[in-house]
Write a structure and sequence with these properties.
Length: 139
Amino acid sequence: MAEQHARNVTRARVRLISFGYLHAAPPDADLVLDARRYLRDPAAANGVLDLDGRDDRVQAVVLRTPGAAATVRTLAAFVREFPRQHDCVVAIGCAGGRHRSVALVELLAESLHDPDARPDVVHLHVHLPRVLTSGGQHG
């Protein structure tokens, strides 16, 4: 009975944030994921350097990266199991905040789609120019 009641509680706000570690420290969140640690930079893929993670082509490249689809599923499960009466904030970062983090946030928002409770999506650094790291990799 308690489980049924929990499902009937209106979902508090869900906020999904993308950001770039090369621009700022991670935002305050219930869960912060560093995509740099295990997802390769899709900016090196042919034809997506000047795009960002809101573009379907970038999302496709990110999803082909081993571990990306599982990450979206795991984050979606985290959000769904988060106490419904509390706001849930998930922040995903990559180097420059334009490709991996943005794509993962967009894919996560799509997987959480609920007509009555669309997550708030915030891309903190997607509008900023590309960043070159000291190794010459794109961020």
